[in-house]
Amino acid sequence: MRAGEANRLGSRGWLILFTLCGATFMTGLDFSVVTVALPEIGRDLGFTSTGSLQWVATACLLPTASLLPLFSRVSDIVGRRRLFILGVALFGAFSLTAALATGPALLVAARAGQGTSAAMIAPTAIALMTAAFPEGAQRTRALGVNGAVLSLGFVLGTLGGGVITSGLSWRWTMLLLAAVGALVLLGAVTVLPRTGTRVPARLDVPGAVLASIGLFALVYGISTGADAGWGGPSTSASLALASLSLTAFFLVERRHPAPLIPLGLLNRPTVKWSGLLGFITLGMCGGTTVLLSLYMQDVLGYSPLAAGAAFLAEGITALIGGTLAARLIAARGKVGVMAIGLTVQGLGTGAMVLLPAQDGLPLLLLTSSAMGFGHVLTVVGFITTMTSGLRDDEQSTAGGLSQLPQFLGGIGTAGLAAIVAARTEALSSTTGPVAATLTGLHTATLTAGVICLTGAALAMPLLRQHAVDTG
């Protein structure tokens, strides 16, 4: 068989990939589509404050981040396909419940259910993908499409949320998620292979509890720190609890015969260093995207819908980056592509320091396009590196670990937002509010660019000797 034929996915392979990418698209859409609809949700259901309304988003994020390690391990015990199908079915049911919610409590509960379901879907989708496509060009191509679809889901969610909310109702955003869930469920039942590894082991309950509490407290502290105050009692308590729980988790894992996350796997250079680079690209891209939304609405005066449309350029270049990732990895290797991706992302992000107070759309489109392209290359590179060279029974755990950076990336968003706030406040007494905000945004985007370029410089020294670059 010729190499080109061996690298083709085949019709069944494409059906499997469409199903798994459909789940990825659905979860990416879920996190962004609600953001634009929050004001109407608050008015329709009678949320009493902005803080309480924010729980519509936070209630989904917290269980996803905190339960990823647990469900990564559970999938090996009960079966990846089985847990994936259960997660997709529950996600669709909770989406329908959210669409029919009559009050804040029911909607927040349904959003928490969506987040829990997403924690089942995310690690199993990656593990099923790595099992379905052999290591090398096929897997890299599949992961490239998956990364592009995830980015496109975030972008289309921002735009689609505005369009649907303006033309119909916020409830249709939840109905859209339920419809996508039904299609993914159909694909999962009909095309996903039934074979797979199941590990006859008991669950590491102490590790699961400590990891879930630690990640929950960490993400909660990050998510609410800006509003509650970084030095406030609730934020300090959350971060302290996270530190204690995660420290205890690592101590427990050293002694457990079947740990939730084997420390040998976590300490592998390809896992920990590629995870660090994934944290950088996701944290800086996510944080910068929030800053760009602030720039468009508070500086350029765009409506939320117009701001969402402006992100389409980033989504298109992300899609291009995902489709080219396999070829670039074949030519330059996984580590080389991570370095290239972070360099392009860093240059695009750093160039945002030139964004003007007026008529900034052309430069905005150019810089955000570069950021999106480089970001997806890095995402594909780090997930491919993290999941390469592992046994089949390690793939679910690695899949869960590969998804954690996108939730812990909120640290980057919080850090960049803090830079904007501090710089804006320092200038507020000597300049106008728009000029002060723009200077704060410039400082934060330049910082994000420098961090990405630093990550690019570290990629080769950290991983060159450890990553096995198969084409």
List the helices and strands and how they pair.
Blueprint: H1 3-7, H2 10-45, H3 50-53, H4 55-78, H5 80-99, H6 104-132, H7 137-167, H8 171-191, H9 205-228, H10 233-255, H11 263-266, H12 269-299, H13 304-310, H14 312-332, H15 334-350, H16 361-386, H17 395-408, H18 410-427, H19 433-463
How would you characterize the overall build of this protein?
With 471 residues, the protein is mainly α. Helices cover 82% and strands 0% of the residues. It contains 19 helices and no strands. α2 packs parallel to α7 (137-167) and α6 (104-132) packs across α17. It is globular, with a radius of gyration of 21 Å.
Biggest sheet architecture: none
- What's the mean pLDDT score? 82
N-to-C CA distance: 16 Å
Contiguous low-pLDDT stretches (5 residues minimum) are 1-6
The amount of helix comes to over 70%
Task: Briefly say what this structure is.
By secondary structure, the protein is an all-alpha fold. It is 82% helix and 0% strand.
